[in-house]
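User: Reviewer 2 asked us to show a designed sequence for the structure in our supplementary figure. I'm pasting the structure tokens here. Could you produce the per-position amino acids so we can include them in the response letter?
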């Protein structure tokens, strides 16, 4: 049966691709036979990348096996993971490993060459700690095509012929052009349109047809009430599915439409990381990133989305493995200069808006390609700094603070909760006081909107004040996995940050919907005694505690007063003083709401 394309349903979280790649590295150079395929799946279980926390997976496991998975205080033994894997009695055990490695192969991060598992050049680059996740996915998606000699999932004879990422960019561009031609403002395609049309666009020659269908569908919806729009869209979706599948069987149609929603949401999440698409229209539309217009224009002119033909599987694997291929169409001095010019103009707009003095003029026309490329990276960093300055100024408005509070208070209503929490906590820290700099470490698009949560190895948010520095660590986790994922990493991030920014007292604010006892006991030890030889200053707050801080801020703003950073550090020290004077965590944590209440009372008189 004909099927849509999907990036992966095995690894829904893009950052976990690197975790899967880490495990694959352990097997690199080994024969990719049935035993190694099983071993890969067992290693994923061992590293708690598969099965852990999945209620369905736990079914049928013994108490001892469940404890091996759940005991996060120690590394699982390979033998324990193998015992869990074997107990599942899979009909085709090796298939599990093949399914799990498939996203890496699809993205060109690993290949099976002459029967041996090999990481590609891009795969090895992606394992570097400082490698850009967005660059990795861009390089992967530019090459990703169906069909390809490395997989039997799709065949030319069945009507498949597309590079899904490139085809999707063409689809959005074509819709925008058609909308402009009829005098309307282009806005990309809606998420509902994306999920229906993008994953089912399996042939590049249908890009024009699909764009026409989207415009016609919009005309049918125009002027109708929401309930009627929903009916029209659902009816259209059923007919579209029937035509694509070549069947009217309701069961198959319903599964197809359900899969499209899943595939579409996942594709948006992954494609967003490339920085070539962005979300607009209140989060409902997916459009081409205007700040990458030079790159996108040249990419689409260079590549029509048609899959490449390879004379052999070996030639395809060589292409996938070569990080220098293809040469990107904007990697010329002329195009680099065009990108630099656009960035400088955009930066000037930000500077004028913020009242920042113009910088020294750069004689970029005399630079070589390598220097121009580095200049582009630096200019994008400068733009982000200006965007953060703008965030700081806009966050001072009382209405902005109330918006941040509302999102945090209703965080479970957000579709991407971890990303939303990091974003709105960062904005709230801008709002709180006179920080010198608030630097969130989540990756962003050119619009400065987060594309994902902060990477492992870095604090979520870095805060710099006149008299102290701090990091802020944010998590949606509330169970024992909060301790496993945040306990040691938070203390390590704080110590590394202290070492890199010496000369001031350094704090860590840890935020979660609720605080797990194991996390608190771990932090307690570092506060009362030491971590790597020195005491730490960690202030654990529930989101409700943090909202009280913001509520204090709004009440002060309503009175025309400003919350200075000295008052914030006074609160941190009072909470830490309570920790030093309490006999245990159970005595300390219940005191925090009263400390915040007393602190608030001293400010709101």
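Assistant: Here is a per-position design you can include in the supplement:
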């Amino acid at each position: 049966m004909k099927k849509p394309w999907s990036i992966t349903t095995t690894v829904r979280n893009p950052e976990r691709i690197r975790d899967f790649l880490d495990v694959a590295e352990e097997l690199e150079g080994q024969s990719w036979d049935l035993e190694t395929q099983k071993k890969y799946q067992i290693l994923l279980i061992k590293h708690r990348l598969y099965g852990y926390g999945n209620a369905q997976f736990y079914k049928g496991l013994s108490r001892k096996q469940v404890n091996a998975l759940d005991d996060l205080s120690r590394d699982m033994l390979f033998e324990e993971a193998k015992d869990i894997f074997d107990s599942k009695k899979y009909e085709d055990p090796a298939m599990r490993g093949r399914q799990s490695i498939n996203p890496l192969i699809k993205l060109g991060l690993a290949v099976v060459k002459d029967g041996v598992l090999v990481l590609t050049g891009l795969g090895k680059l992606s394992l570097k700690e400082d490698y850009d996740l967005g660059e990795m996915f861009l390089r992967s998606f530019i090459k990703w095509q169906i069909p390809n000699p490395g997989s039997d999932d799709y065949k030319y004879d069945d009507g498949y012929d597309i590079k899904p990422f490139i085809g999707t960019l063409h689809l959005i561009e074509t819709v925008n052009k058609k909308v402009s031609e009829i005098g309307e403002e282009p806005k990309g395609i809606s998420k509902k349109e994306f999920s229906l049309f993008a994953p089912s666009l399996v042939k590049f020659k249908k890009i024009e047809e699909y764009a026409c269908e989207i415009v016609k569908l919009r005309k049918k919806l125009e002027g109708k009430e929401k309930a009627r729009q929903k009916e029209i869209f659902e009816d259209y979706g059923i007919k579209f599915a029937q035509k694509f599948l070549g069947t009217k069987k309701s069961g198959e149609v319903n599964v197809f439409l359900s899969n499209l929603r899943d595939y579409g949401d996942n594709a948006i999440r992954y494609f967003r990381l490339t920085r070539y698409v962005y979300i607009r229209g209140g989060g409902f539309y997916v459009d081409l990133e205007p700040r990458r217009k030079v790159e996108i224009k040249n990419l689409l002119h260079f590549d029509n989305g048609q899959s490449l033909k390879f004379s052999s599987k070996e030639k395809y694997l060589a292409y996938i493995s070569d990080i220098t291929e293809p040469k990107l169409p904007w990697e010329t001095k002329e195009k680099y200069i065009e990108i630099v010019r656009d960035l400088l103009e955009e930066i000037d707009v930000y500077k004028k808006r913020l009242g920042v003095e113009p910088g020294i003029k750069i004689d970029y026309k005399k630079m070589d390609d390598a220097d121009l490329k580095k200049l582009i990276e630096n200019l994008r960093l400068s733009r982000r700094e200006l965007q953060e300055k703008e965030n700081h100024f806009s966050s001072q408005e009382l209405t902005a603070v109330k918006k941040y509070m509302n999102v945090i208070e209703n965080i479970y209503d957000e579709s991407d909760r971890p990303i939303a929490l990091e974003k709105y906590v960062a904005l709230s820290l801008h709002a709180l006081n006179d920080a010198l700099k608030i630097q969130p470490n989540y990756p962003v698009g050119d619009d400065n909107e987060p594309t994902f949560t902060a990477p492992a190895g870095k604090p979520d948010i870095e805060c710099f004040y006149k008299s102290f520095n701090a990091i802020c660590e944010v998590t949606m986790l509330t169970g024992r996995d909060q301790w496993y994922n945040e306990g040691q990493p938070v203390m390590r991030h704080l110590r590394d940050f202290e070492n890199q920014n010496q000369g001031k007292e350094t704090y860590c604010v840890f935020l979660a919907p609720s605080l797990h006892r194991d996390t608190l006991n771990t932090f307690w030890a570092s506060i009362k005694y030491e971590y790597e030889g020195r005491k730490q200053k960690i202030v654990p707050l529930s989101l409700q505690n943090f909202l009280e801080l913001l509520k204090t801020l709004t009440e002060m703003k309503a009175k025309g007063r400003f919350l200075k950073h000295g008052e914030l550090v006074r609160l941190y020290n009072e909470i830490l003083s309570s920790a030093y004077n309490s006999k245990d965590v159970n005595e300390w944590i219940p005191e925090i709401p009263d400390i915040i209440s007393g602190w608030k009372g001293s400010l709101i008189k």
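For the response letter, you might also mention the following. The mean pLDDT is 91. The two ends are 71 Å apart (CA to CA).
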